[in-house]
């Protein structure tokens, strides 16, 4: 069970970092400090979101409520990251839009993969 969780968290975080750093480059974010900030913010938010999704899958029934729950968690992540980016990101004029775009890509690619 522990190995499964480590793998689940590790793969999710790794894919999220690759996708969101790529999204940052596409968005035009090039400063090394900004790319590091994006990495650190995702290290903070991704495990929390994955943990909540895992808890839901373990203890709640499947169905329409699952996708609503996932979207609520993802909305909280977008808002949290967007506020951090607005306060500290130097290379983007629209940090909330970047957060929405990057997390949207990450979320939907995650659904497709797994």
Describe this structure in words.
It contains four helices and no strands. The relative contact order is 0.16. The protein is mostly helical. The two termini are 19 Å apart. The chain has one domain. Keywords: Membrane, Transmembrane, Transmembrane helix.
Q: How would you describe this structure in keywords?
A:
114 residues, mainly alpha, 4 helices, 86% helix, globular
- Gyration radius, rounded: 14 Å
The helix content, as a percent range, equals over 70%
Q: For the terminal residues, how far apart are their CA atoms?
A: 19 Å
Helix and strand string, N-terminal first? HHHH
Average of the residue pLDDT scores: 92
In total, how many beta strands? 0
Which segments are poorly predicted (pLDDT under 50) over 5 or more consecutive residues? none
The fraction of residues in strands falls at under 5%
Structural class computed from helices and strand pairing: mainly alpha
How many independent structural domains? 1
Q: Please, how many helices?
A: 4
Major β-sheet profile? none
């Amino acid at each position: 069970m522990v190995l499964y969780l480590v793998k689940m968290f590790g793969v999710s975080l790794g894919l999220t970092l690759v996708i969101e750093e790529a999204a940052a480059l596409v968005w035009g974010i090039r400063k090394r400090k900004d790319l590091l900030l994006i990495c650190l913010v995702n290290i903070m938010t991704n495990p929390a979101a994955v943990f909540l999704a895992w808890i839901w899958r373990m203890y709640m029934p499947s169905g329409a409520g699952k996708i609503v729950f996932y979207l609520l968690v993802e909305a909280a992540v977008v808002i949290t990251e967007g506020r951090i980016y607005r306060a500290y990101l130097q290379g983007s004029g629209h940090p909330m839009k970047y957060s929405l775009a990057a997390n949207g890509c990450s979320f939907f690619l995650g659904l497709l993969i797994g």
